Amino acid sequence: PPTVPVTLDVNGTSHTLNLDTRTSLLDALREHIKLTGTKKGCDQGQCGACTVLVDGKRINSCLTLAVMQQGKRIQTVEGLGTPDSLHPMQAAFVKHDGYQCGYCTPGQICSAVAVIAEIRAGIPSHVTPDLTAKPQLADAEIRERMSGNICRCGAYSNIVEAITEVAG
Ligand code: FES
User: Fold this and answer.
1) pTM exceeds 0.90 for this model
2) Which among 31, 36, 54, 60 is the best mutation to test ligand 1's pocket, defined by most ligand atoms within 8 Å of the CB?
3) What is the mean pLDDT of the segment spanning 118-129?
């Protein structure tokens, strides 16, 4: 198929690729830029394993075309921290064992980073606030905000603990 030049800013590095215009951002990241931290679970927007940040907001990279993400700031799990200095959310997932097999973890962490930003920006969740039951509310709200990220090992309780710690 014909290809077009596509320039993507990923983790602060510019990559110009020749892509079939139908290439998803997920495939561009994994197959062309060789950043395999972002995972492909369902490839149809149901599992959240492919979550990345685009201009600070989370998206399912399997559901968007790479060509549409030019000129934006794309962050993957590889860009959140370094081996010597983990992002606070990465460190919290390690501390609280927020995973078992680890396949969903990059998407969970990218999503969780966006959740903190959403809470700080005052973007409401769909959980009705109940100020008399604050700890339970916090868990329910985090679970609701993270509901697009599936963990087949069922590490949800530890994921909630990790996010709660970073949320402060
Ligand atoms: Fe994109 Fe499952 S791989 S949502």
Assistant:
1) yes
2) 60
3) 82
